[in-house]
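tool=predict chain=A
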Amino acid sequence: MKNNFIIFKNGITTGLFLQLAIGPVFFYITNLTLQRSIYDGLIAVLAVTIVDYLYITISILGIGKLLEKNKIKIILSIFSSIVLIIFGLLTIKSIINNRSSSAAIIESSNLLGSFLSVLILTISNPITIVFFTSIFTAKMVEFNYTKRELYIFGLSVGSATFIFMSFAVVLFTLVKRNIPLVLIQILNIIVGVVLIGYGLFRIIRILKMRGKNIN
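tool=predict ok
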């Protein structure tokens, strides 16, 4: 039987390495932290962690294999891309509509809104299950993990999400007082553009791949 600490350490290392692939959710949480409060940022991190653990559990149970079917993957990818675009548009719209009261908005807090928005944004991309399934399958083969050991590995991979993003939230909270209001507004718009651009990029790539498969 393998040492549980070594398994957990391997999971933390793997999870932190995966966090280096910064995606739209990270940018969205950064924006929430700068626009609202540290509590909004941390509760948003909690939402991401909950969804990650949900998808990790599904992946370990093997249900993620169902999502590897091409048609299902295409439908889910397009759906998640549309959600990204909607969130991007809403982010930009909120700044345009509230330019006159931006200072008040940046000092405000909406914990439930922050939690639900990030929960929806994260859970709308079930393709993450396929990603986790691939990672866990590779690790299971590489280290010959049992199902129980795989759960320990998954627990530590998920904790890396909370550790990395919480650290980022605290860091951005410490520096945001020194960031001009105009720059925060610009960053807000950039986040919206990134979400829209990433969503459109994924849809275009999916349609191109589908076109090649048809031909």
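The chain has one domain: 4-214. The chain has nine helices and no strands.
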